[in-house]
Amino acid sequence: MHRIIEKAKKEKRPLLETEAKELLKEYGISVPDFKLIKNEEEISGLAKEINFPIAMKIVSPDIIHKTDAGGVKLNIKDEKEAKLAYQEIISKAKKYNKEAQIFGVITYSMIPQTTEIIIGIMQDPHFGPVIMFGLGGIFVEVLKDISFRILPIEERDAEEMINEIKGFKILKGVRGEGPKDIKAIKNLLLKISQLALENPEISEIDLNPVFIFEKGLQVIDARMVL
Predict the structure, then answer these.
(1) 91 Cβ partners below 8 Å, 6+ apart?
(2) For the chain, which has fewer Cβ within 10 Å, the N-terminal or C-terminal residue?
(3) Residue 142 pLDDT > 70, yes or no?
(4) For 98-167, where are the alpha helices, taking DSSP H only?
(5) Topology given in CATH for the domain delimited by 115-225
């Protein structure tokens, strides 16, 4: 059993976002550089480690909907703003759930907005582990424009998953935007499939959003449940 998973199981909680991203990095999956801030003093010198502007989010296994809890701050321009944001995030999180276990605040550089995709893995009672792919935002929430496959998947399966969604034309480039990195998406599908199969203790994976660029991608938010 992976050490990150073993620690979370002992503490009877889901993986923290920081832990999920560490696991993704071990599988060669790109995530923004991040740092877990455990107290206000650790913000001093942050500019030497992470480029501003930054995003800050509460890290707690008991607060899933971070935005509802006031646990997200974006476009923070310097360390002074970061200290104020840290105080506000911690304060609001404690008010939102007095019993919540708070591990700190994750900080990472803001990434330019681009096309979003979503990838998920869940356990189907009949078929076992299933992988899902779709464009993010309105495409998944309203239009339900998603594709599924039973794990394990191979390169051909990943290609078919990408090609069969209605929003595929957006990935190919529309209205002056260049085509997105389809190969990077395919590799992400294969790597997350491998991660899920090699770590069966994980029952659910939610990568949402994933920013996809003309070259490469970044997993902005990651959630894993044991």
Answers:
(1) none
(2) N
(3) no
(4) 138-141, 155-163
(5) D-amino Acid Aminotransferase; Chain A, domain 1 (3.30.470)
